[in-house]
Amino acid sequence: MVSDLDSTFVERDSYFQTVAGLKEDGYNLLSDLCAVDYLDHIDRALPEGVTRERFEVVVSLTSMSMKKRLRLRVPLPESDPEVDSLFPLYPGVEAMEREAYDLLGIRFKGHPDPTRILLPQDWEGHPLRKDYSVGRIPVQFKEVKRTR
Fold first, then answer.
1. CA distances from 86 to 91, 92, 119 (A)
2. Which of 5, 72, 83, 90 is 20 to 30 A (C-alpha) from 140?
3. What is the CATH number of the domain that holds 78?
4. Structural domain includes residue 142
5. Does 116 map to a domain?
């Protein structure tokens, strides 16, 4: 682990064990999980020892008993944006991981339902990726029939 003022960077290979240890240490609330695409900011400043990757998964943990918060950042390569699912530790993360998959294409190993949550199952691509072709392809909407 490498730490800076706001976040702790965790390698993907130790991500699940790190979060499991933090849960044992009292971080019993996972309040948020999201993903970030740094395509346009690949040269951003990072602490020494942290590998620059296109994607990051960002997890916010809270210890209610210690009144502390912690943010973990997991760099993921563009060629393999996959990390272990935290569902076995925090079942409430199920929808957050599905959203990160749906919008950015981050895969979560061991997730019980690795399907889209916001977009139709046949949607092509991941619209929050910086290289998604907005405006260059027709919008893929289905007509909804009114029942009234």
1. 7, 9, 22
2. 83
3. 3.30.460.80
4. no
5. no
Structure confidence at residue 6 as a pLDDT band (50, 70, 90): low
Residue carrying the six token digits 């997890």? 59
Q: pLDDT at position 143, please?
A: 75
Domain-located, residue 125: no
Q: Residues of 73-95 as b/e, b for ≥16 C-beta within 10 angstroms?
A: bbbbeeeebbbbbbbebbeebbe
- How much is the average pLDDT of 92-117? 97
Exposed e or buried b per residue across 13-25, where buried means at least 16 C-beta atoms within 10 angstroms of its C-beta: eebbebbeebbee
Could you tell me which residues are beta bridge partners of residue 137? none
The model's pTM? 0.84
Structural domain count of the chain: 1
Average pLDDT, the chain: 91
